[in-house]
């Protein structure tokens, strides 16, 4: 029997990647957990999730062979984390991928070599078992040829990978036999086999043979190009090399568990099974929270921000169970960084910022946590004493709304005590915003159906728009009409796409919209209009056109970009770079771009930031941008390799869009960024920069909209015209007098409001002196009920205070009407409130005014839209007290 190697997590990750690099694969970096340009995903949840554009044929990769170790988040079974050996909210997926290149014949021998060769993992072949799809005879034969014994090959009808529309096909799974001593089922248990529900046979690798398109018609058609997609869980493989009973006893988690021990009150991992669950939950969740915040997501009540908030609060509550009574999660961020620094150095680099976000959220939750736990514990005790096995929905909602307990956390806490939660009652009490937050889940949609209309078209096309906006004799080298390659297209076709051998039209990318313009024939006649430009799979500029005359494949045309529009877009694009740098300088280095749109008449820039952006900060940002414009700084570009660009200090945005050669845009010493877009030659061309608006648009995402040049002048002119109008209305001769005049008017208005309030109070007091003398006797006690002519609910409450001070009756019911609105107030003396509550009385009479309300036992109020029902309400109050 071969001796098992001792490898740590960093060594396993590196060995896997190096193996496939030696087999011609390109190492792809681990992408951000926040998906880029993929609205179907809440999080990146697998290695292949970052490869979708290659697998569905939208983009042809530089190298069809790729390998990666991709950080991923899945949150569909959070409640299982800590209770099982291998459930995690964040994990790393090792993978190798082939896009139309190699297939089963190559990947199966490679897999066996990596797993069993002494140069690589060096597993004992006798420890490995393989499952395969029964109809996949090729996979069986290749496994046998690689050296897998027949009795280690097992058919499994579930070995078919299919997540909806798009690529699908059979797969094969590899299991490692950890021995019966590691098992959680008996030797003769029917689940004790590779692929069964047991801990002995550990699944370590899944290799998917994508060979079919799952069509919208629910059929399976052969793919134009067959693909390979594999996934090996790093945490699982490391547990083998480190001989760990579960994933948590590995170097990826144990430092976090050990640190948690130092925070707890004499709790030690491995001494108590219940405590061990809590240690595991904290270790798992702090990893996920740290990486998610590091990638730009922030706690909130919606979407991925809700996931972070839920995980953080679950970890805090879990800490309470270990006796941790002070904020501790932020202190664990550097430990996460140390564990992962070999492949993710950015975590340590941003540790202070990540910790500050966690600390703020943790402290906010801690202020209400104890009250919520006390309420929950009391409810649980009451339920047990009363023989009830359910927590009502209203209580669950109060825990959520008042104390910040996600419903899932309440359910989990209740489940630990053998109780359930009234989910339907909770949902009935939720607001629309809270419903959206509760429904935040991973959306694991399939890929798009693979298309090969342009996949095989490799003829190059050159973009020259950086230096010229028109081209003579541009030749059509590719032409489709309604999805079919054609020799000629005419205006009757609905969808016409053209590739020229050379073009001045920019293809939409990096937030910059595409150019528009004209296609002109040799006679000077316009034959078509370019309305959009995108990138074809091999990155040629693909023009979408509207024709006014037929065009032919191979023919040559003059291409003319809309110059004024293009120049405006250039100004706005350069402004985004200036703005990006200004935000970093003013708000801090943690600020990073989260999206942008560069249009003709404005720019939109989204960025990550924790907290509000003050008016002072916005002014500083705007001034900084304009200072660079007025300094007349040259804007230069250079094309180089990625490493050289990084040495220049270039900022990389959405790095998965960059190839081996990159274009760097440099604005003097102020800003240097990777960018393939169009820019001005000097910042003075922008003329003026003006921020139009700034607001939050998502969890930790802020958005600035701004204008430049003539659009900025127009914006300022409109504001000047508005100020002139206000000055005229205020009858001041100069605009600078407007603030002083407005202040004078505000002072006068406050004085008048004060006088009016005093007058209303006097009127109300006069009415009250008459009303309070009219006391009615009821079975429940003395009642004063009357309709008054007062300003609203505020004065009704003042009268109730006077009534209570004088003690003129046991019950007070007052009403007033203002236009089409009605107000009711009920007050009850302290002694009578023990028997008749104000809230019950107001609910009984409020329907008469088409309203509803509530309040304390001694005071309640209601509003409605039927003033005509006031007399009926007062009579109903009398009837209620005479029951």
UniProtKB/TrEMBL annotation:
SUPFAM superfamilies: Class II aaRS and biotin synthetases, Putative anticodon-binding domain of alanyl-tRNA synthetase (AlaRS), ThrRS/AlaRS common domain, Translation proteins
Coiled coil: 742-769
Span of domain Alanyl-transfer RNA synthetases family profile: 7-718
Reaction(s) the record says it catalyses: tRNA(Ala) + L-alanine + ATP = L-alanyl-tRNA(Ala) + AMP + diphosphate
Positions bound to Zn(2+): 573, 577, 675, 679
Subcellular location: Cytoplasm
InterPro entries listed in its UniProt record: aa-tRNA-synth_II/BPL/LPL (IPR045864), Ala-tRNA-lgiase_IIc (IPR002318), Ala-tRNA-ligase_IIc_anticod-bd (IPR018162), Ala-tRNA-synth_IIc_core (IPR018165), Ala-tRNA-synth_IIc_N (IPR018164), Ala-tRNA_ligase (IPR050058), Ala_tRNA_ligase_euk/bac (IPR023033), DHHA1_dom (IPR003156)
Keyword ATP-binding: yes
Domain of life of the organism encoding this protein: Bacteria
Cytoplasm keyword on record: yes
GO biological process, one term: alanyl-tRNA aminoacylation
Enzyme Commission (EC) number: 6.1.1.7
Cofactor stoichiometry and binding remark: Binds 1 zinc ion per subunit.
EC category name: ligase
Cofactor: Zn(2+)
A molecular function (GO) term: catalytic activity, acting on a protein
Keywords, in A-Z order: Aminoacyl-tRNA synthetase, ATP-binding, Coiled coil, Cytoplasm, Ligase, Metal-binding, Nucleotide-binding, Protein biosynthesis, RNA-binding, tRNA-binding, Zinc
Primary role: Catalyzes the attachment of alanine to tRNA(Ala) in a two-step reaction: alanine is first activated by ATP to form Ala-AMP and then transferred to the acceptor end of tRNA(Ala). Also edits incorrectly charged Ser-tRNA(Ala) and Gly-tRNA(Ala) via its editing domain.
NCBIfam families documented for this protein: alaS
Record text about domains: Consists of three domains; the N-terminal catalytic domain, the editing domain and the C-terminal C-Ala domain. The editing domain removes incorrectly charged amino acids, while the C-Ala domain, along with tRNA(Ala), serves as a bridge to cooperatively bring together the editing and aminoacylation centers thus stimulating deacylation of misacylated tRNAs.
Family to which the UniProt record says this protein belongs: Belongs to the class-II aminoacyl-tRNA synthetase family.
Alphabetized HAMAP family for the sequence: Ala_tRNA_synth_B (MF_00036_B)
Protein name: Alanine--tRNA ligase
Gene for this chain: alaS
């Amino acid at each position: 029997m071969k001796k098992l190697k001792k490898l740590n997590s960093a060594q396993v990750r590196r060995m896997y990647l190096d193996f496939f690099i030696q087999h011609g694969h390109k190492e792809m970096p681990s992408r951000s957990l926040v998906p880029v340009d993929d609205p179907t995903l809440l999080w990146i949840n697998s290695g292949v999730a970052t490869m979708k554009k290659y697998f569905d044929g939208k983009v042809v990769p530089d190298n069809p062979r790729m390998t990666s170790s991709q950080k991923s988040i899945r949150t569909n079974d959070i409640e299982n984390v800590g209770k099982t050996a291998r459930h995690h909210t964040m994990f790393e997926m090792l993978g190798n991928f082939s896009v139309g290149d190699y297939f089963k014949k190559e990947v199966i021998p490679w897999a066996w070599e990596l797993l069993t060769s002494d140069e690589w993992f060096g597993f004992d072949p006798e420890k490995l078992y393989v499952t395969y799809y029964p109809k996949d005879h090729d996979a069986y034969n290749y496994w046998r040829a690689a050296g897998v014994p027949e009795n280690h090959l097992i058919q499994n009808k579930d070995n078919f990978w299919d997540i909806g529309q798009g690529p699908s096909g059979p797969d094969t799974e590899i299991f490692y036999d950890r021995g019966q001593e590691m098992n959680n089922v008996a030797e003769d248990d029917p689940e004790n086999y590779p692929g069964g529900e047991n801990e002995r046979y550990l699944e370590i690798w899944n290799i998917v043979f994508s060979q079919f398109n799952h069509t919208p018609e629910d059929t399976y058609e052969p793919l134009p190009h067959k693909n390979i997609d594999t996934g090996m869980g790093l945490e699982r493989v490391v547990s083998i090399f480190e001989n760990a009973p579960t994933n948590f006893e590995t170097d990826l988690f144990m430092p976090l568990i050990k640190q948690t021990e130092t925070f707890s009150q004499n709790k030690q991992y491995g001494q108590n099974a219940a405590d061990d669950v809590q240690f595991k939950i904290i270790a798992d969740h702090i990893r996920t929270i740290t990486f998610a915040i590091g990638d730009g997501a922030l706690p909130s009540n919606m979407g991925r921000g809700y996931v972070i908030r839920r995980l953080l609060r679950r970890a805090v509550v879990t800490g309470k169970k270990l006796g941790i009574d002070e904020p501790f999660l932020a202190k664990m961020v550097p430990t996460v960084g140390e564990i992962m620094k070999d492949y993710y150095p950015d975590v340590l680099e941003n540790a202070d910022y990540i910790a500050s976000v966690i600390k703020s959220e943790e402290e906010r939750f801690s202020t209400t946590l104890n009250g919520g736990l006390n309420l929950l514990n009391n409810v649980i005790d009451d339920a047990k004493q009363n023989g009830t096995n359910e927590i009502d929905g209203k209580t669950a909602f109060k825990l959520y709304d008042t104390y910040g307990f996600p419903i899932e956390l309440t359910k989990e806490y209740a489940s630990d005590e053998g109780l359930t939660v009234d989910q339907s009652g909770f949902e009935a009490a939720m607001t629309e915003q809270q419903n959206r937050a509760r429904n935040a889940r991973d959306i694991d949609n399939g890929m798009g159906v693979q298309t090969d209309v342009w996949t095989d078209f490799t003829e190059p096309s050159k973009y020259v728009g950086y230096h010229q906006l028109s081209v003579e004799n541009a030749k059509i080298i590719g032409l489709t009409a309604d999805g079919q390659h054609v020799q000629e297209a005419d205006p009757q076709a609905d969808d016409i796409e053209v590739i020229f051998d050379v073009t001045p039209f920019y293809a939409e990318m990096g937030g910059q919209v595409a150019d528009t313009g004209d296609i002109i024939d040799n006679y000077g006649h316009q034959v078509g209009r370019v309305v959009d430009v995108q990138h074809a799979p091999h990155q040629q500029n693909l023009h979408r056109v509207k024709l006014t005359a037929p065009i032919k494949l191979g023919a040559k045309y003059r291409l003319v970009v809309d110059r004024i529009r293009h120049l405006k877009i250039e100004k706005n694009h350069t402004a985004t770079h200036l703005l990006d740098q200004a935000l970093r300088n003013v708000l801090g280095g943690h600020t990073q771009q989260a999206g942008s749109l560069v249009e003709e008449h404005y720019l939109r820039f989204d960025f990550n930031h924790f907290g509000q952006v003050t008016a002072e900060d916005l002014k500083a940002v705007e001034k900084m941008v304009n200072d660079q414009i007025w300094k007349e700084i040259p804007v230069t570009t250079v094309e180089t390799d990625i490493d050289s660009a990084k040495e220049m200090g270039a900022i990389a945005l959405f790095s998965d869009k960059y190839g081996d050669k990159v274009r760097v845009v440099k604005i003097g010493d102020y800003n240097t960024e990777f960018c393939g877009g169009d820019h001005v030659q000097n910042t003075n061309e922008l003329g003026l920069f003006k921020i139009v608006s700034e607001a939050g648009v998502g969890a930790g995402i802020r958005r600035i909209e701004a204008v430049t040049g003539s659009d900025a002048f127009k914006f300022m002119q409109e504001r000047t015209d508005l100020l002139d109008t206000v000055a005229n209305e205020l009858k001041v001769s100069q605009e600078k007098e407007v603030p002083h005049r407005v202040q004078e008017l505000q002072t006068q208005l406050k004085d008048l409001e004060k006088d009016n309030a005093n007058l209303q109070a006097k009127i109300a007091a006069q009415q009250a002196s008459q009303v309070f003398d009219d006391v009615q006797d009821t079975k429940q006690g003395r009642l004063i009920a009357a309709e008054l002519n007062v300003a609203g609910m505020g004065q009704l409450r003042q009268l109730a205070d006077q009534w209570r001070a004088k003690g003129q009756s046991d019950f007070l019911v007052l009403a007033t009407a203002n236009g089409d609105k009605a107000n009711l107030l009920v007050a009850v003396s302290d002694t009578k409130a023990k028997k008749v509550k104000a809230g019950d009385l107001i609910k009984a009479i409020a329907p008469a005014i088409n309203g509803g309300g509530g309040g304390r036992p001694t005071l309640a109020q209601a509003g409605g839209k039927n003033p005509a029902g006031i007399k009926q309400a007062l009579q109903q109050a009398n009837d209620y007290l005479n029951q």
